[in-house]
Amino acid sequence: MTLTDAPARLEVGGVGLCALTERDVVAAVRERWRAGQGGSIITVNVDILRTLSHDPDLRKLIADASLVVADGMPLVWAARLMGHPLPERVTGSSLVFSLADAAARDGRSIFLLGGARGVPEASADVLRARYPELRVVGALAPPFGFDATEDGMDHVVRAVRAAEPDLVLVGLGFPRQERTIERLRQALPQAWYLGCGAGIPMAAGQFRRAPALMQRLGLEWLHRLALEPRRLAGRYLRDDAPFALAMMVVALRARRRTAPPDDRLRGSALSAPVPGKEVRPLAVVIVTYASAGVVAGCLEALPAALEGAGDARVIVVDNASPDDTLDVVRRVAPQARIVRR
After folding, report:
1. pTM of the predicted model, to two decimals?
2. Torsion angle, alpha carbons of 240, 245, 250, 254, to 10
3. Mean pLDDT (whole number) for 183-195
């Protein structure tokens, strides 16, 4: 991709995503560094898409970014269902390392912004140890709510501008990090900014990423859920899972509307039923562990998410929940098949 190229964007869930690999993203940043141009990268996941669906005013934060990539396998799957696939998932936690590596090789400096007290400094130590040539010119853990006041935001902007970094890793969560990036770009337009969410504490070793196989299968959310069940169970199971399913149903409908007539007659999984040919139902698999407090909301949201999807079966795979998760499943969705692990 050359400097004059505008990355192609594919609309998934109402957001335009760049069809780029992680290597493409790093190459684009390095090229713009050489040209003295700044920019920003936003990594979009299902939770961000769901937030945008409730607050459309936030979409401008995404639209104004230089590069917008899919940080979530459901987005990649939805793009494939639409027939315009994204090349791969590109995560903020991976870009923390690949962009730090590029900065070290190009003699560029970085600033780490976000995380609890001491976390950005610990992350900086890890990155320096891995990339000895890397110049870290600042690390700051702003107090919670700093962005609610003009003085708090100004303090952060002044600190970053004084350090004059080439790359700022911003891990504050959506939409706080994107709003902060918007202000920082006004003050220091020649720098690049990455909204990396939990990428800074991950780099610091606060918790590990899922094994590579789980990442490839799109199960990293399950790994995170096991690490932080109290904080993430409601978000992942009650909120994000039905939204992701609805997004893929919409993608299927879009594929059916745009597929050429001959494609519709080939008997693929996306085609209309063919007389005499077995049509397999859609399988919705929900993985639970100690999920009694959130699984009802997930199951109750499924009918609306599956509207128009045809025959569908719900399978609940339970990992020996010590609470009454399965009793809730039987009560709310008696037709669901239960698999005990």
Report:
1. 0.76
2. 120
3. 97
